[in-house]
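Data availability (excerpt). The following record was deposited with the supplementary files.
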Amino acid sequence: MQRTVRCEWPENVPCTLGTWRACGQWRKSYGSVDAASANGAARRGEAAAGGGAARSEPQCAANSARASSILHLPRPQRRMLGALSAVLSAGSEALERLAFLLAALFLAVEFLPAAFKSLVHRAKPFPRVLQEVPRRRTVKDIPGPWPSLPVLGTSWITTKFGPYSMSQLHRAYQDMFERYGDIVREEAVWKHPVVSLRNRADIEKVLRSQSRAPLRPPTEIVSTYRRSRPDRYASVGIVNEQGEKWQHLRRVLTPGITSGRVVGRFLPELDAVTDEFLALLRGRRDPRGTVAAFDELAMRMGLESACTLVLGKRMGFLEATVDGVAKQLADAVNGHFRASRDTFFGLPFWKILPTRAYSLFVECEEHYYDVISGLVEAALREEESTCEVEPVRSVFMSILHAPDLDLRDKKAAVIDFIAAGITTLGSSLTFLLYNLAKNPSVQSRLHEEISVLVPHGAPVTSENLRNAKYLRAVISESFRVLPAAICLARILENELELSGYSLPAGCVVLCHTWLAGLEEKNFTKAKEFHPERWIPEEREKLCFTNHSPELLIPFGSGTRICPGKRFTEMVLEVFLAKVARDFHLTFKGELNLKFEFLLNPSGPVDFVFQERQ
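Predicted structure:
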């Protein structure tokens, strides 16, 4: 440890070169003089004594005692004094004078008098604003996984060399939030920052800052592929476009599917689709009532419902035996989502090499483009005769007859609507039944409500659904506890300060509403399934003081909200009402999850459907 040393020479003994030369003890104190230097000093001491210039013996003794009391200096200072002693031993008067001046300067710096030091310590300090100027924390200061590699950033963390698995990315983010806090920085290709948020205030600030045309990170593989196929696509599609182009597509393509009146007219047909699905479940039960691989059947339900609404045509996906085309279309959509996940969150080698993920994406995209494009062209040839389901004719025809729009954009819109509906609906149906099966008290209360509103054998109507308060609460709670979309992605349009860090415009942020919704500070008993929290009078009665409904955005937020929101909610309401009325559900074990761009059930999902008497 380095220590500051103070030299206290008495006032009646001047510190001169002769005094230092006559006192050999100082060399011993610093241990920096070699034998030759010591001998030279001794010879000079003898000469000084013969000439009468030496100090008296008491003076030398006093100086020797003072020098010996000096503590050892750090190594650089010792070396400097050693060099000075070598100069003194050389015998040159000019060198001795130079050495003395250097030594005096050194001592003035190293050994400040005690009085002067006390004055320095008692001096008034500079104002605090000049002493401590807090540095503005930027996006580079946000903690996150390390190291960030050149070009690749932190995208390596989900490879076989990293700590996380691509199919368990939802668990990866949960772990990173526990390690680094409510704000985490990753770095994508070329080290572009991607910031994940779990803090409710930060998420609200991002969503409030949106313009009328919010920016979201595009699925790059979709944009790249569609730009390479101008023969099929006039744009990258309504999901990936930005700015004015996106506003135009949204305005002309979505009125039919977002209209409450149009979707309401779809209800009778949806009721018939649900009855057909329940008949399929009954036919798949074993003697103990178990329906194996329910998640696959739920995907077929989602595909049939989406095609019926968007295409205006029943496809036959719920029949006991499904033809090859229908199954291939469902498999293509699933493969499309897996490839999108691997290229979005993984290493970017697909941009320079035809990787397995890119090849899978191209194969799936081209397959279901061919299938759906054939349906669209047939509809154009046959016009209204193609729309077999009369109430939903306006949805499909509103897309086909959209003004000032290329036919290629119309086909792309149909493809995007169906692909989004299949996986979202299928997973949401599975998660909804799982939450119901794991909470028998919720299931009993829901059965009582539906049995009154929709007696056995009666169809579901819009009036029934308006009065099913607890039914809607169960669906909302299921979206909070286990949604298909676990986060919301945005590109900041302006500079924002989030959790004390300044994020620039253009920064990509991921708002993890699912993980935020499982925080106790946002929802009382957040890890438990309580639909009552969504009924105001019951929430107060049960003292659910923490309640953050702004985190429940399974379909997105603002003008960029999913256009299929009304349709999806209605499918879930009709399906849940009929299942809760007719069956008692049980599920053994826990539901495993996997991330495939959306959150999906992993492995076979087996429910037990027991008929209610």
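Summary of structural features: The chain has 26 helices and eleven strands.
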